[in-house]
Amino acid sequence: MKFKKKIIFLLFCLFFYIPNSFSVENKILFKVNNEIITSIDLVNEIEYLTLLNTNLGSLKKNKIFEIAQNSLIREKIKKIQLSKIYNISEVDNIYLNPLLNELLNKLNLKSQDEFLKLIEIKGLEFQTIEEKLKIELLWNQLILNKFSKDVKIDKKKIKKEVLKNNLQKEFLLSEIVFDLNNENLIEKFNKIKDEILNNGFENAASIYSVSNTANSGGKLGWIKLNSLNKKIKNEILKTKLKNFTDPIVIPGGFVILKIDDQKETEIDIDIDKEVEILSRQIANKQLNQYSNIYFNKIKKEFQINEIK
């Protein structure tokens, strides 16, 4: 779904000529079932996404609007689905704080006060971001409840790999997870590759990735090589530093991985602890794949309409 020219023009004016989003005339732009997306929602989402990925600002304005639109639609779909099971407003802070701390670490902030000052500058309310974190938390819980029984972990095999060498490779990875939607794989990959070469991997991830990591430019963090399956491991090992792989088939679609950095670390003396760390990484990877599959499945049941 693409913006009409008049909506692009309207939002361009709102974003670049109104200093505070609360002074914007609030227009309904889209409906996801009965949930609305307004012009203020979109302006705030742009501010939030550029907070997570500063490179986003280098894109053309219509691209930024499209990324923000898709991000809000994903969030609305998750919110509606979660509301059938949970009361989102009742999530306790004790569960929310780890996600907030993770966000502060991503932004290199030392305290919540620094974070509050930063979002105030960007015209964002803490309650808005808090709701985003609650949706993320409950969505992860939903996926865990639905698919934890399908996660396959072979700890004996992991331990065998760990014991092969007292040094292990780790890679700082970013991802773009995508599906074809009746497109040709080569054409889709060339489109993504052109975006990577023209505007960088982070922006390409924001545009094309269907993973939860899209909002942060596809960043996965440090991943131990032994936690990857053989197919992905082989692609990583033959890809040079700062480069990205060809599309790799995964459940529910394809993934492109970029190697941002790499290192070798000495394995902790506590082998069992190392096995647990690797097991968690493998489990998280599988659950993320199930999350993408489940989201794509339920998305077909939703009515997404542009308000003209």
| Morphology | globular
Rg, Cα atoms, Å: 20 Å
Low-confidence stretches: 1-6, 14-23
Largest sheet: 4 strands, antiparallel
Quickly name the level 1 CATH class of the largest domain.
Answer: Alpha Beta
Strands side by side in the biggest sheet: 4-3-6-5
Order of helices and strands: HEEHHHHHHEHHEHEEHE
Tally of DSSP helical segments: 11
CATH topology of the largest domain: Chitinase A, domain 3
Q: What is the straight-line distance between the termini? A: 13 Å
CATH architecture classification name of the largest domain? Roll
Beta fraction of the residues?
15-25%
Helix content bin: 40-55%
Whole-number total of structural domains: 2
Describe this structure in words.
The chain is an alpha+beta fold. The chain folds into two domains: 144 residues, Triger factor/SurA peptide-binding fold (Orthogonal Bundle), CATH 1.10.4030; 145 residues, Chitinase A, domain 3. The protein is 54% helix and 15% strand. It is built from eleven helices and seven strands. It has a four-stranded antiparallel beta sheet with strand order 4-3-6-5, sandwiched between helices. Strands 2-1-7 form a three-stranded antiparallel beta sheet.
